[in-house]
């Protein structure tokens, strides 16, 4: 057997190594800017996306507002489930002539909505926060209309019912303001 001598290992020159690396990155499609103007450091970050892009610049007080809404919905749901007659008497200032089941169903629906809103308290994605606010706004709008129409049919306007209508309107306006502000696109600097 003949022993062939291999040539000594040569170190690559840093310049050719750099060119080779740049060519490889270009073939992979990383390192340059994409359509959104982002520079990806690796193929993995390019495939998974940049998480900084999805962070939300929240309006001041939105977390507190969602927390207050979640607590309010939960308390009202529990009151409607446990004390349906008293809830009706406080709002309409008359005794409940029908069964308690409709108010308890209302309490169950409120409890379900409160779970959605509690989810919005801890959400980090803009879309989930927006859907939470939109759900809340729809509830307040429908509740305002139903209460107003019911009071108009009864022909009475008790002070507590007027206060309830005004509070629903105020909650609707604040929720829609947060929804609008969260949905606006920020200008890039």
Description:
The chain is an all-alpha fold and 189 residues long. It has seven helices and no strands. It has helices at residues 14-28, 43-48, 62-82, 84-92, 101-122, 126-154, 159-183. Helix 5 (101-122) packs antiparallel against helix 6 (126-154). The chain is elongated and about 110 Å long. The N and C termini lie far apart (72 Å). The model has no long low-confidence stretch (mean pLDDT 79).
Short description:
The chain has 189 residues and is an all-alpha fold.
Number of strands: 0
What percentage of amino acids are in beta strands?
under 5%
What does the radius of gyration come to? 30 Å
- Which structural category fits the helices and strands? mainly alpha
Portion of residues in helices? 55-70%
Q: Which sequence of SSEs, written as H and E, runs from N to C?
A: HHHHHHH
Number of helices: 7
Q: What is the terminal separation in angstroms?
A: 72 Å
Shape: elongated
Q: What is the makeup of the main sheet?
A: none
Mean pLDDT: 79
Low-confidence parts, pLDDT < 50 over ≥5 residues? none
How is the quaternary structure best described?
single chain
């Amino acid at each position: 057997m003949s022993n062939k001598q291999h040539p000594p290992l040569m170190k690559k020159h840093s310049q050719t190594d750099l060119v080779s690396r740049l060519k490889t990155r270009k073939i992979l499609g990383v390192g340059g800017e994409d359509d959104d103007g982002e520079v990806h450091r690796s193929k993995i970050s390019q495939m998974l996306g940049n998480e900084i892009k999805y962070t939300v610049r929240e309006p001041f007080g939105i977390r507190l507002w969602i927390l207050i809404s979640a607590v309010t919905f939960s308390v009202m749901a529990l009151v409607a489930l446990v004390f349906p007659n008293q809830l009706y008497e406080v709002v309409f200032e008359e005794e409940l002539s029908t069964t308690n089941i409709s108010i308890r169903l209302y309490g169950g629906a409120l409890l379900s909505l409160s779970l959605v809103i509690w989810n919005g308290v801890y959400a980090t994605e803009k879309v989930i926060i927006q859907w939470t606010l939109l759900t809340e706004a729809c509830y307040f709008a429908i509740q305002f209309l139903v209460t107003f129409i019911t009071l108009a049919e009864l022909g009475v306007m008790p002070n507590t019912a007027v206060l309830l209508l005004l509070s629903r309107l105020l909650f609707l306006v604040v929720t829609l303001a947060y929804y609008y502000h969260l949905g606006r696109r920020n200008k890039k600097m």
